[in-house]
Structure formats: structure tokens, C-alpha cells
Amino acid sequence: MTAYIIRRIFYAIPILIGVNLITFVLFFVVNTPDDIARSQLGDRRITTEAIENWKHIHGYHKPVVYNGTEKGARKITETIFYEKSLRLFAFDFGRSDSGRDIGHDISQRMWPSLAIAVPTLLVGILINITFALTIAFFRATYIDFWGVVLCVILLSISSLFYIIGGQFLLSKLLHLVPISGYDTGLNAVKFLILPVIIGVIGGIGAGTRWYRTIFLEEIEKDYVRMARAKGLPETQVLFGHVLRNAMIPILTGIVVLLPLLFLGSLITESFFAIPGLGSYTIEGIQRQDFAIVRAMVFLGSVLYIIGLLLTDISYTLADPRVSLK
After folding, report:
1. What does the pLDDT read at residue 114?
2. Which DSSP category does 320 fall into?
3. Domain limits at 12?
4. What is the DSSP annotation of 92-105?
């Protein structure tokens, strides 16, 4: 197990380097430091002196990759590539173009994102699997047919409709929860109820159809026929055999959602004014603060790779036949 984890970590390094290099090229070759300065200064008639002064304050005045005026290792360290790109591997996110400490912002904003994403993920998985097993239990009946129709309808509706409709119904008409905002401690619960409900409802259509397909595929396998031939009740077959053997594809689907636990939902956090990492990324894009966007892209890549590693490890817990070699 240890050797496998170490090997996967080494496999992840080239991927992170590739993502880092592509991001660097997009931000500093296609989009030059002069362009970044102009976007931040926001004046079409900005002077050359003002651009150079802004670049010097924010560290964009250095050479891009190689500094021929320095000696030794400073030829590499005194460059934009080292300051703005390589330091990300040490999780040194530096400062945003507006002067804020990105690492501090991430450590503060990750908790609201987790407060929304974790209950949404757990409750959503529980409801989706329950609905999918129910539909699979009544397969080839009207319950199965209308269940699939309902899933398609829910899947076809935009997430913005759920957000706006939920705010109008539960907040404006019924006054059950605040329409938006956030607070700390236990006071945050009342602000999280509506985003979590909408997140769960918005994912029922896609999630239930996905799990239903997995369960129907498992139901047709020989071990299920053998279990039925032994006289086991259908509920025990579904929950004791089908669900357990379907865990590997289920875990594979969940891994895609793991980065969202930290990075948050861009749309949900923006509409509900939740100060999480999703809204933080949107704010960075709106302000054209490329330092924030670079940091969030790199952090998302790291979290996704960690999710893949945890998924592979969890395979051995779900199915002992899977070996990590």
C-alpha cells in the first residue's frame, strides 16, 4: 500500500508540472505583464511610467523565465516564473494583484465552501442511491418509467431555476430562511439550509439516473441470479449484493465531486453571497486578478489528484479482489 501511494504521488508530479506550465503560458506569454498591469489600472490612457511602477510593486517587472543580470541560483529565483509559478508547489500562493494574501484568503474561505459542499454531497448521495435502488427494485413497471421521466425533467432544468425558484418560494413568500448572506458559528446554519436543499434537488436527476444504470447492470450478472436461486428476498439481493458490488463505479463518480468540497460552487456561492472559494474565484475573474485564478487552478488540480488517489485506495475497502500494485 505504501509503495503504491508513493508511486502514485510520483505519477502526479508530471501532471501538476504540466498544468502549471500551461497556466503560466496562458497568463504570462499570451497575456503579458503589461496587459495585466493595464487591466488592473483600468485606464486606457495609462502612462508607461504608471505601468512600470505597478509591475515593480507587484513583482511583474522581473524577467519571465531567466534573469541574466543575476548570479548563481538567482538567475532562476529572480524571475516571474519562479515567483508566480514554482512557489505554488510549496503552496506559497503569494499575494493577489490587489495586494491580499491568497493563502490566508483560502484558509478563511474554505470553511463556508465545506459547510455547503459536505452536507450537499452526503445527503445527495444518500437520496440518489435510495431513489435509484427503488426504481431498480420496480424495474420495467410504471414506477420505473415515471421515475426515469421525472429524472429527465429534473436533469433538463437549469440550476439557476432551482436557485431563483427556491429563493422566491422559501425566502420571499414563506420567509422560512434568509434569501442570501452568511454568518459564523451556529448562526450560519440558517443561511446554509436553502443552498443545501437546492444543491440536493438539482443533483437528483443526474445522480439517480447514473446510479440506476449501475444497479441495472449489476442486476443482470450471474451472482444476482445465484442469490435469487437460493431464495434470498429481493431487498436483500439489492442492498446486500447489488449495492455492495456497485461501490466501485459509485466511488469513481464521487471522485469528480471531491474538488468541489474545497473549491465550492461558483454559481451557488455567488447567488447566495456565501464567502467561499467559489465566490472567491468569481471575484478574481471579475477583477481580472490573475494571481487568484492561477492559485485556484493549481489548487483544483492538486485536489483532483488527491481524490483519484483516495478513490483507488477505497477500491480495496469496497472490493477485496482489487489489489494495489
Report:
1. 87
2. T
3. 2-90
4. ---B-TTS-BHHHH
Q: What is the DSSP string of 232-248?
A: --HHHIIIIIIHHHTHH
Q: Quote the number of domains for the chain.
A: 2
Burial (Cβ within 10 Å: 0-12, 13-18, ≥19) of residue 299: buried
- What pLDDT score does 123 carry? 92
Rounded Cα–Cα distance for residues 247 and 266 (Å): 29
Determine the pLDDT at residue 296.
87
| Stated pTM of the model | 0.79
Whether 138 is in a domain gets the answer yes
152 and 298 share a domain? yes
Given 90, 121, 150, the domain boundary residue is: 90
Cα 269 to Cα 230: distance, rounded to the nearest angstrom: 51
pLDDT on residue 260 = 67
Same domain membership, residue 257 and residue 110:
yes
**Distance of alpha carbon 191 from alpha carbon 202, whole angstroms:** 18
**Would you state the pLDDT for residue 142?**
92
**CA angle 14–19–21, rounded 5-degree value:** 90
* Residue 64 to residue 169: CA distance in whole angstroms: 53
* CATH of residue 166: 1.10.3720.10
Name residues whose C-beta falls within 8 Å of residue 104's C-beta, 6 or more positions apart in sequence. none
Q: What is the pLDDT of residue 197?
A: 92
CA atoms within a 13 Å half-sphere pointing along the CA-CB vector of 11: 10
- Domain membership of residue 323 (yes or no) is no
**What CA–CA distance (Å, rounded) separates 92 from 111?**
19
Same domain, 67 and 193: no
CA distance 173 to 167: 9
Same domain, 56 and 111: no
Closest to 116 in 3D by CA, of 255, 9, 240, 271: 271
| Domain presence at residue 96 | no
Which of the residues in the chain have pLDDT under 50? none
Same structural domain for residues 70 and 113? Answer: no
